[in-house]
Write a structure and sequence with these properties.
It contains 16 helices and 8 strands. With 391 residues, it is an alpha/beta fold. The longest helix is centred in the middle third of the chain and has 24 residues.
Length: 391
């Protein structure tokens, strides 16, 4: 595979008109300045808390670039537009940090609605939810630590299990795949167990339920191999979304504060190696494990493409998907789709004020991975130049 596939900006930005291209360029230029991100974040949080009329401004800039809309119907133009160029959508209800039962039931109902919605649209083969969208973080942590629940907590946990089950059951009926996001390591053990139960129940013949491997954790390859052995013994299929991970600073700080070994790989290189090793293991065992490659890393994509070619895995094989976040890495998503691979964008949506924590994390992530932002900027520059030369 020649390492130039992702340089094609004409394909990458075909769906952006000139003003959208300018907005993207402006946004990534802003994000590339860390102090600006910090000031912007604080100002935005203040303005929203003070109920100042800033939603329109947020909506016209950062929200519309990184989000599909405020509700699922609002996302339809984005979904349809991307699908014309071969990119599917994974609607991601990005409302975070709620703690009450009514909200957890609402989140479940929202995912059930999206599954029914997805069932009617070829452009939406996959849905996603976060474990803490369905129950309190504290409960996952307590269960993972092996501590006994009170009677009330036991009932609460049973409701979490029932929410997972309702979603996976409907997904199985409608043949829509479910990605369950990964979260912090100190709650993940209980979530992993729950995901495994759902896989045993619903992944008998084809993988419907996918857990997430955050490969910045050095213990994930071993976990993957052990689960593979259990799947073979138990005669069920596995699904995995692999990502590098989203909570690095938090993980390291907690490990330091509490005096245990950090679960995070020591270097970026070690994380990259772990990601590629986990990906390779899965591609070598596709008869049992299906794979969603969640990455903005070009090299990982090239490795996967080369392996698929080598092993005779068809580009359209439903057991392998590539995924990126909406508003980022269009040069990867659209160029892969043009080559005929299965590609899906994570499309976050929700009320502007509720989705702000998600958007702030995206902006902060981009400043911490400076290479990512400068790559986006260079490609946008290149496309602006190409269009000027054409006009």
């Amino acid at each position: 595979m020649t390492n130039s596939l992702f340089d094609n900006t004409q394909v990458a930005f075909a769906l952006k008109n000139d003003s959208e291209l300018e907005r993207a360029y402006f946004l990534f230029k802003m994000i590339s300045h860390e102090p600006l991100v910090r000031i912007g974040t604080a100002a935005t949080n203040f303005a929203l808390k003070a109920k100042l009329p800033v939603e329109g401004l947020i909506r016209a800039t950062v929200f519309d670039h990184f989000c599909g809309g405020v509700n699922e119907e609002d996302c339809l133009p984005v979904i349809d537009k991307m699908f014309t160029n071969g990119v599917s959508s994974v609607l991601d209800y990005s409302v975070e940090g709620k703690e009450d039962e009514a909200t957890f039931d609402d989140a479940r109902d929202k995912i059930l609605k999206i599954i029914k919605f997805a069932d009617e649209k070829e452009s939406m083969p996959i849905v996603v939810f976060k474990p803490t969208g369905f129950g309190r973080f504290y409960l996952y942590q307590k269960k993972g630590e092996g501590k006994a629940f009170t009677e009330k907590e036991e009932q609460e946990w049973e409701r979490i299990v029932a929410r997972f089950d309702a979603v996976c059951k409907l997904a199985k009926e409608k043949d829509v795949e479910v990605l369950i996001d990964g979260e912090e390591s100190w709650m993940q053990e209980a979530a992993d167990e729950l995901c495994e139960q759902m896989m045993q129940k619903y992944n008998g013949d084809i993988p419907i339920v996918y857990n997430t491997l955050q490969t910045y954790r050095w213990d994930r390859l071993e976990y993957l191999k052990n689960l593979y052995d259990r799947a073979i013994a138990g005669n069920f299929k596995l699904g995995f979304k692999i990502v590098r991970g989203a909570y690095m600073e938090k993980e390291r700080k907690r490990a330091e504060d509490k005096g245990y070994q950090s679960p995070i790989c020591e270097t970026k290189q070690a994380t990259d190696k772990n990601f590629n090793t986990c990906m390779t293991f899965i591609l070598n065992h596709l008869e049992t494990i299906s794979l969603f490659i969640g990455t903005h890393n070009e090299l990982s994509c090239y490795i996967a493409m080369d392996m698929m070619k080598e092993k005779g895995i068809a580009k359209t094989d439903n057991n392998v998907w590539f995924g990126q976040l909406y508003g980022m890495s269009d040069h990867i998503s659209f160029n892969l789709a043009e080559q005929g691979y299965n590609v899906a964008k994570y499309v976050p949506f929700g009320p502007v004020k509720d989705v702000m924590p998600y958007l702030i994390r995206r902006a902060e992530e981009n400043t911490s991975v400076a290479g990512q932002t400068s790559r986006e900027l260079n490609l946008l520059k290149q496309e602006r130049k190409r269009r000027k030369a054409m006009s």
